[in-house]
Amino acid sequence: MPGARTPGSRRWASLALVAPAVAIAAFVVVGGIGMSVVQSVGLLPLVGEAAFSLDAYVANGDELLTGTALSLGIATASTVLSCLIGLTAAIVITQGRRTGRIVAAISALTIPIPHLIGAAAVGLLLSDAGILPRILGIPGTEWPDFVGGSWWIAVIFEYTWKESAFVALVVAAVLSSRVARYDETAALLGASRARRLRHIVIPLARPAVIVSAIIIFVYTFGSYEVAWLLGRPYPEPLPVLAFRLFDSISLTSRPEAAAVAVITTMISLVVVALGMALLRRTPLWR
Amino acid sequence: MVMLIPYGQRVTPDDRTVSNRALMRPRPAGRALRITIATLLTAWFALPLVPLLLWFFADRWSAPAVLPTEWGFSGVTSALANGAVPAFGRSLLLGLVVAAIATPLGAMAARALTRGAVPAPRLVSGILLAPLAMPAFVAVMGLTIVLLRARVPGLVGVVILLVAAALPYTVYTMRVAYAAHDLAYEEEARTLGASPWQVLWRVHLPLVAPGLARSAFLAFLVGWSDYVITILVGGGTIVTLPLLVASFASGVGNDAVVAVLSVSAILPPLVLLLVLGRFGRRYPTARFMTGPTASRSPKGSP
Asked: Searching chain A, which residue's CA lies closest to the CA of residue B4?
């Protein structure tokens, strides 16, 4: 590490330090999106002539529309539920009593569990031969179709289970460092519990909740394995549709998979932009 | 941007803070409500893990029975027969390789960014965060053709994509670590005649070690948990633990094997998390450096 010699040499040293990370991230992000766009408009076929066309976007028009609606629905439901449960957990955690410590420990333990493993576990829990119908004494034939049903309950359940722990951890970290003092001051000034929650805890937690919500939405919107394992064959969410087209043997399917990828990315980017705009409007965001 | 996962960091207030809150001493009704909510939350987080533990020890468990009808380890035997050990080894190696690459790269970038001499810092931060905003399958579908034409081996391609996916975590964890890091210690060591190498190994790295451990853990998780990149870029030839779990879980009647494989996929990160919790708190120099309260502040990065 060179010391502070001249501004110019420091600049070059800094550039050399960020270069490897930026090169890899830029290759994957710019290359990934760029090449998806190029393939989706037919400019990079596996065989044959390259020619510009938007056929790939039109070929699966109906499936694209239903897939988009479905993915948006799953991601919205998972994000909203995760934020509600996670915020509640964070508030319980930062109360600082023994109950809070148990919730903190158990939620932190679920975070390193891979989503795919979570999906397998939720399958063993919620399917008609799962543990829950057995415990409740409901025969499998009368058990609602949580796994593979038309409401995608098991998928949303898995996302919510994993991501609520994520929200709890991120928000609890913010609350534990900032809220305690304000909360005490307000209590001293005679604010009731409900008022403290409404005017102190929730506003202070808001930026962290919004950031978590953006990350969760984008993740659940573009995630494949959970929806594939716990969902139903039709209609397909966008990532599942893209996977099927990508693996299909027909020659036109690669551009079609790329088109699905481009649409998924565009929606993700719009959501990130909206989320960031919302974040900038919160008073605490610096 | 301050998003980070505060691993190894204390999120519950300490006893001193709590005992001072005489004003907020719970009323009976509030207490009952809080305990009910806490119980429900504990059940919520623990519930999906119950079937894994029960199926782990079940030889036979016919449908209406509440508990396994025959206990045993046939799931373990069957998992071992289906290549669980090599898959475990591959996952471990993949996680370690991703951590070994993404952690130093993230730390270097974070150091440069916190010292403020990088041109276009917002753009650079944006690029480093971008993998978080892009679905993994998009990167794969775009880049497979590039990697194929450049004749990049499947394993190398998988590692490149996973490192990119891990960089947002390592960069931002290290930015927080460097924001609390005092350069004066390094300057002091240099004044006393330490070589750049000695400053790096004896002063700089020990001081940011807890941050490095946290980033390495998150990067390891990215490699350890991945399914999409490994199966698409690896073309199904790199059989990691998640691939094995997926192939059994998508079939019927493999519940015991799925449980055994899942438990073996959960244990290593959990052990690392516990080790990290100890390491992150015990490190004496770090506490001395950041003070008792600063380590709890996640709003460290600019």
From this structure: A170
> Which amino acid does the sequence have at A77?
A
- Cβ(A100)–Cβ(B12) under 8 Å? yes
At B146 the three-state DSSP class reads helix
Q: What is the mean pLDDT of residues B206-228?
A: 94
What mean pLDDT is predicted for residues A113-130?
Answer: 93
Domain that holds residue B177: 83-294
Q: Do A29 and B41 touch (CB under 8 A)?
A: no
Is residue B256 domain-resident?
yes
A286 assigned to some structural domain: no
Does position A117 have pLDDT exceeding 70, yes or no? yes
The model's pTM is 0.90
* Alpha helices by DSSP H, chain B: 15-19, 28-46, 49-56, 74-81, 84-115, 121-129, 136-149, 154-179, 184-191, 196-198, 205-225, 228-233, 241-249, 255-282, 284-294
- Measured distance CA(A73)–CA(A145) in Å, rounded: 18
| A43, A110, A176: best to mutate for the B interface, most B CBs within 10 A | A176
B21 domain-assigned:
no
Whether residue B77 is contained in a domain is answered as no
Say what the pLDDT of residue A196 is: 86
Give pLDDT tens digits for A179-213.
777 888 888 888 888 888 888 888 889 999 999 99
